[in-house]
Amino acid sequence: FENHCFIGFVILSQYHSIPVPGPSAAVKGLFSLKVRQVAFSAALLVSGSETIGPFNTHTNLIFKNVFENIGNAYNPQTGLFTAPVRGAYHFEFYIYGPGETSHGSGAALMKNGQQICIAYEHQTSHGVKSANGATLLLEVGDVVFLRQWVNSKISDSTNNHNTFSGHLLFTM
After folding, report:
1. What PROSITE patterns is this protein classified in (predicted)?
2. In whole angstroms, what is the distance from residue 52 CA to residue 146 CA?
3. How far is CA 153 from CA 61, 104, 108, 160, 163, in A?
4. Could you tell me which residues come within 8 angstroms of residue 31 by beta carbon, excluding any fewer than 6 positions away?
5. What is d(CA 122, CA 133) in angstroms, rounded to the nearest whole number?
6. How does DSSP assign 109-151, residue by residue?
7. pLDDT in tens, 77-133
């Protein structure tokens, strides 16, 4: 066993809490990763109530009532989320509308101007709600946002019916 280096691994299950000595400084240096914590959640309105739309073109939505913005990657002035690190991110959104004959309620999740998925609902009365989400591989600087569907209406109040959230799952 001369001139050999052995590295041991200890696997702990969730049921064992036996303390284990940490790795040496050299091993820590080899395997350290700088991971940023990124998560946000926001609603459309800070106060009051409003019906937004209809518009004759797709229109970017700005979610101004920020619940959390860990890592400050979401901008409540522009409605844009900008990826600070390369990684897998998960986004979800909920859209609420007034429910009427002439207009549905919907929005599209956009990545760098490309439509990823939509949430859309149309019924003739009572409030309507739709939702969608996606996991996306983002490069540093990629932009994700929501765009209101053309000719649709979205209603919100201090009950925060419309929300947009996202978080970094892991870096790559």
Report:
1. C1Q
2. 14
3. 12, 6, 13, 15, 15
4. 23
5. 19
6. EEETTEEEEEEEE--SSS-EEEEEEEEEEE-TT-EEEEEEPTT
7. 999 999 999 999 999 999 999 888 889 999 999 999 999 999 999 888 888 899 999
Q: What gap in Å lies between CA 105 and CA 154, rounded to an integer?
A: 6
Which of 71, 113, 104, 74 has the alpha carbon at shortest distance from 91? 74
> Which amino acid, 26?
A
Cα–chain center distance at 114: 16
Are 60 and 145 within 8 A, CB to CB? yes
Q: Which token pair is 144?
A: 């994700």
* Adjacent-strand bridge partners of 68: 41
- pTM, rounded to two decimals: 0.78
What is the Cα–Cα distance from 130 to 163, expressed in whole angstroms? Answer: 11
> What is the C-alpha separation between 25 and 145, in angstroms, rounded?
41
CA nearest to 161, candidates 58, 34, 21, 63: 63
